[in-house]
Amino acid sequence: MRTIVAKAGLVAALVLTSFTTGAAVFLMGGSYSESFDGIGDGLPDGWSVRTGATADSLGTPANLVTEATSWGDSGGAFKNVASADELTSGASTASQAASTDRALGLRQGGSFGDPGAAFVFEIPNTTGLSDFTLSFNLQMLSVQTRSTTWTFDYRIGDTGDFVVLGSYDDPGVFGSTPITFTGDQLGAWNDQSSTIWFRIVALTDSVGTGSRDTIGIDDFALTFTAVPEPSGAGLALISGALFLLHTARRKS
Ligand SMILES: [Ca+2]
Ligand SMILES: [Ca+2]
Fold it and tell me: Which residues are registered as beta bridge partners of 54?
């Protein structure tokens, strides 16, 4: 009963904003991809946006403004924004709103996510999976005078420090930067029974003065392979061979 009441209370908040994640994403089939083109309806399953994130804390889930919002909008918030892919830096607010290629955007504010803003993807486990690659585009959508360094990191399990994979410094120009991690960098992700948290996070204060940039993430993708199961497959082969041997001996 408490659950039902809580859900009813959320309905009003869902009109313009979406709170935290939906269902968990269980990886299967060799790949996962997220275009963020549906974020007008809320965050994709497995994703959250947060503030108060630190080197060893996920922080607190924040709201997403689901209404299409222009890159130049200066309000501090996570937002549904147009992707950089189909537009130029001078695209009008109307053409941004009309674009069907969406991105998960953020403008930090003096009292919003600076530092501590994070885009977070949660993988409940990777049991039976290995050889991960991870890629996405980090987009500079509104070039402003302050600069934020974005850290890419992950944690296996629910406690301890995150492991840093890399970072992105403010390029100072509009556009999309592809980010990719492969092989050994993600070797620890193989066959994990614990939750893996991947983040794009502002761990330090922005530098400079004046306004903060609007950034977005788009075209997130994972690839992976199934770990071979030698015990099961091997047993089947051995029992098959024994059967053939037994049959051959009976016939001879
Ligand atoms: Ca997109
Ligand atoms: Ca900047």
Answer: 57
